[in-house]
Write a structure and sequence with these properties.
- By secondary structure, this protein is an alpha+beta fold.
- Helix content is 36%, strand content 22%.
- The protein is built from eleven helices and twelve strands.
- It has helices at residues 2-17, 25-31, 33-40, 44-60, 94-106, 112-125, 152-161, 235-242, 261-266, 288-293, 305-318, and strands at 23-24, 66-68, 77-79, 165-169, 178-190, 193-200, 205-210, 214-220, 249-256, 269-272, 277-284, 299-303.
- The chain has a five-stranded antiparallel β-sheet with strand order 7-6-5-4-8. The chain has a four-stranded antiparallel β-sheet with strand order 10-11-9-12. The protein has a three-stranded antiparallel β-sheet with strand order 1-3-2.
- Helix 2 (25-31) packs across helix 3, helix 3 runs antiparallel to helix 4 and helix 5 runs antiparallel to helix 6.
């Protein structure tokens, strides 16, 4: 619905800005498909209400629409004069232009790629210089953001429109996905993975979700948000908190030689045990057990005991075994 309205507003704005004389409502009705469909359904009132709302929305967005009461057919005419709706000259320095160019180029997937490249072309047509067309500043490496998860686009739209969502989510080390009801705040790419930060309604707390662990479709909900959205949502900070980064406690693990490089980069100390294993001291915080379980047979938790128990339970769940009871081995 939001996309359909945006398209209708764009079509109306184009009609009003690309005419040399005022257009009557009848002419606009024939030019904009959504208006024509509303009128053909037999409801003149529905078309009139739709048109008046759209006209007011465009004015709120800053479009100056003139009304001419003296058209040839006696109806009021509407026109958005280009001289009154011309944007000021765009002035960007070299760093700002480079940032816009990079932002347009990094999106290689999803429908955002078309919007980004189109915006870049319009800026170039407006006279904004972009050095990437020449040899200067060109490097052998070209960054891009990959968006492989099907959940990315519906979550991005839901976060933009402040719409709650529901989806099935499989936690790290869990054998099956669980239903989650979330108020999405923001998405961010961190260390090669996309994460969503938002308010988990069932748990009544902030949670982060890795998009690659969302299974099935993201379903939108009509209700409004129940929790206040922070002015600034630092997704990376939430991810770091749940990943144990910045924790004051530490844990001891044994890691197979040649494995677990991301974990090794966070190690506070590393000591060789034998030709196959190393012993690492790592930061210990909430959510660390989920990360450690992903290393499977390449990692053994030495302590503390609650972390060891957490990892063992997660591994047993993946294997379809009941939770361990009694003394840990």
């Amino acid at each position: 619905m939001a996309i359909a309205k945006a398209e209708r507003l764009m079509n109306l704005a184009l009609c009003l800005m690309n005419t040399r004389r005022p257009l009557s409502k009848r002419e606009l009705r024939e030019s904009v498909e959504a208006y024509r469909e509303a009128w053909q359904s037999g409801s003149e009132d529905a078309f009139n209400r739709m048109f008046e709302r759209d006209k007011d929305d465009l004015r709120e967005l800053g479009l100056v629409i003139d009304v001419d009461e003296n058209t040839l057919d006696g109806e009021a005419g509407y026109l958005a004069r280009r001289d009154r709706n011309r944007l000021p000259e765009i002035a960007l320095d070299a760093e700002e232009a480079a940032a816009l160019s990079l932002a347009a180029k990094v999106w290689q997937q999803a429908r955002l790629s078309g919007a980004a490249s189109g915006a870049l072309q319009k800026l170039r047509a407006a006279g904004v210089p972009f050095d990437e067309d020449g040899a200067e500043g060109r490097t052998a490496l070209e960054p891009y953001i990959a968006v492989r998860e099907a959940a990315f686009e519906p979550l991005l739209i839901a976060a933009r429109d402040r719409r709650p969502v529901a989806f099935d989510y499989r936690k790290a080390g869990a054998a099956a996905a669980e239903p989650r009801a979330v108020e999405p705040w923001a998405l961010e790419c961190w260390r090669g993975h996309w994460y969503l930060a938002g308010w988990d309604r069932d748990r009544g707390a902030v949670r982060v979700f890795r998009l690659s662990r969302i299974t099935g479709k993201v379903r939108s909900r009509a209700a409004a948000f129940t929790a206040a959205v922070p002015e600034h949502v630092d997704v990376r900070a939430y991810v770091a908190t749940f990943a144990g980064e910045g924790a004051t406690a530490t844990a001891m693990v044994r890691l197979r030689r040649g494995a677990g490089f991301p974990l090794r980069t966070k190690a506070l100390a590393t000591k060789p045990v034998d030709q196959d294993w190393d012993e690492l001291e790592i930061p210990y915080g909430h959510g660390l057990g989920a990360d450690l379980a992903e290393y499977g047979p390449d990692l053994v938790v030495l302590g503390p005991e609650e972390l060891r128990a957490d990892v063992i339970d997660r591994l047993r769940a993946v294997a379809g075994l009941p939770a361990a009871e009694g003394e840990l081995r």
